[in-house]
Amino acid sequence: MAELTVFGYRPGDSILHSLDVRVKILSLIVIGLTSLNADPIGLSVFTAVSFALILNTRLRFMTVLKELRYFLVLLLFVFFARALSMPGSPAFELKGVILTREGLYHGTLICWRLLLVVLLGASFVATTKPSEIRAAVEWFLKPFPFIPRKRVATMIGLIVRFMPAILDQAKETSDAQRARGIENRKNPVYRLKKLALPLLCKTFQNADELAVAMEARCYSENRTDPSLSSGGNDRIALFVVAGLCVLAVVF
């Protein structure tokens, strides 16, 4: 059984738990799009709100960072790639390697925006049931007659449910390799290959077993979805999100 992670649903009574899933999806999309044009002040506001929501959902911030450690490494590569490739006034130079002030600034903004979206997404997944996500996706796709909304919603729901299992499998693979002394190999490419290949094979095997099990049980995408309802708190949340986005763009 998969362990509890920030990418799996956790029951609770926080503000995000009480909001309608459609409001949370709209807010996530609007904040993500607004952050593309937000300056450091606007990003600071969004980041403060994200930290407050994480604390309100009782997610440990250090646990969140631990789960995102590989993503943080990716952000580090993105930061240096931007700092090295963007022309501008030199800020640091060592043996022909030049980091420009403009590159450092824009690299910081890009990584900041990506981290913000991931933090908000983790908060959303941790406070929303997969069945509600499936129902919300189907509701959003209802105006489009040529899109198989039930099938798309089912696929997204399975992805959300399968994510903690993939992370749990990655942890098991990493622990097994550590027990076999993989840390003695200093080549990071070799270690990554030995982690990625078994993980991909096991993931595809589990997905195939899941598909066979669903077919054996005559699983159908035409299922009864949970009822979605919104109230006053949802309208207040939308108003607050819209106000924050306007302030982030204007100021």
Folded structure, characterized:
By secondary structure, this protein is mainly alpha-helical. The protein folds into two domains: 1-128 and 228-251, no CATH class; 130-225, no CATH class. It has ten helices and two strands, in the order H-H-H-H-H-E-E-H-H-H-H-H. Strand 1 and strand 2 (97-100) form a beta hairpin.
Summarize the structure.
This protein has 251 residues and is mainly α. The protein folds into 2 domains: 152 residues, no CATH class; 96 residues, no CATH class.
Question: Would you spell out the secondary-structure blueprint of this structure?
Answer:
Layout (H helix, E strand, L loop, with lengths): L14 H4 L2 H15 L4 H17 L4 H7 L1 H17 L4 E5 L2 E4 H26 L3 H11 L8 H31 L8 H29 L15 H19 L1
Antiparallel strand pairs: 1-2
Helix pairs in contact: 2-6, 2-10, 3-6, 3-10, 5-6, 7-8, 8-9
- H/E element sequence: HHHHHEEHHHHH
**Largest sheet descriptor:** 2 strands, antiparallel
Spatial order of strands in the largest sheet? 1-2
Unreliable residue runs: none
What class do helices, strands and sheet pairing give? mainly alpha
How many domain modules? 2
Main attributes of the structure:
single chain; 251 residues; mainly alpha; 2 domains; 10 helices
